């Protein structure tokens, strides 16, 4: 092709390119295999999510079986007993909870084996095949979902074993899919290496890189809010928005996980994945459709438009007492807090700072998106000092969205005050079951919907943004400053946000409404 010429490449249609509303139930029996079944993630998140899907009827006892696999040599009943205490009652089904738990646990079978040897995976395949035969499933029509509740270091050997010994035998409408948890590498190089190793074994439509933030109710509402409401369309740009904050705060420290956390730090643990995924949904353009590939194409475009992070727009912190953990090195520079400004170089967002903030051992626990609008020109009511208009989406806890605006204070005098238009989920949707993120995402994997999962090129673009900064931190070129537990974090963080254009509102506090 000559220089200056354009070409259009047509992507081959994928099996899962369909709207969720057009989902058609599949008929082959379903095997869900949880690798790392004896670990904390499986006990606290994976199995409880499967239980709630079972109780709500999304997976049926007559066509699903669940297999646990780990190195620990225990019996089926041992695993069931370990899981039992984590299976909380489903809203509206409390009276039958014990019966439901008993029926669900009978769906679980345990297979013990190593993660890198043939013997264990042949035993696993034998157990799955016996179940499929018992259901008179036609060879090739059954469905196998492998959930890797494991450290990323064992992903390559486990995937190799699955590919060699546990695949669905032929393609007669059935499938084999794998679900992998973050962290997907520690930087661009390691992430690309991991992607290449898994990519050699499985096609992209078979790989589900799970980020549980994409399963949160309010995160999933972002696209609906932006693209299904007319009044947001003309406002959502640099002409009206001053800055956007995406915040994650925890009021506790590493809680005995210091040694693990010290390998990653708050940027790798929270900002590079959870908060960046939220940024994509806040900043992306409207996709052509809701087909997964169209949505993920737009997210990649946003990531590729992010400018390199400037050193003077980063504040790192480490709470006092973090190094007291015996598993943390005495000279650790690992940040437990970070605030940084990301800037998107495109027509919609040029000049609008995206302030990303995450920290541990702070004075509150919350995750939210705060869209702050510009000042009203010609302020005839002299009320700018009271605060700007803001649209706030509270992701957790107390899910809500509210619009902060200026109104006349009731009374005979003409005084203005800050108030809000409020949609609090606990109040508005009292009878509705709001699912946990893992429930929704596991259901998506069963249905073959990859919209809420991270694509390989998306992962690469995310690491390209943060790897230069992370390497500077690892080399000690950017230092973490100490801050007191229970505080707002380093003083420099608020100063950075103010410098970027954020205007703090004084005298107004949003109070979640009571039932």
Task: Chart the SSEs and their pairings.
Elements: E1 30-35, H1 40-55, E2 64-70, H2 76-84, H3 97-105, E3 108-112, H4 118-134, E4 143-148, H5 155-165, E5 175-181, H6 188-199, E6 207-210, H7 217-220, H8 222-227, E7 241-249, H9 258-262, H10 265-283, H11 292-304, E8 314-319, E9 337-343, E10 353-359, E11 366-373, E12 390-396, E13 400-408, E14 416-424, H12 425-428, H13 437-447, H14 456-474, E15 481-483, H15 491-500
Helix pairs in contact: 1-13, 6-14, 10-11, 10-14, 11-14
Keywords:
single chain; globular; nine-stranded mixed β-sheet; disordered N terminus; alpha/beta; 515 residues; 15 helices; six-stranded parallel β-sheet
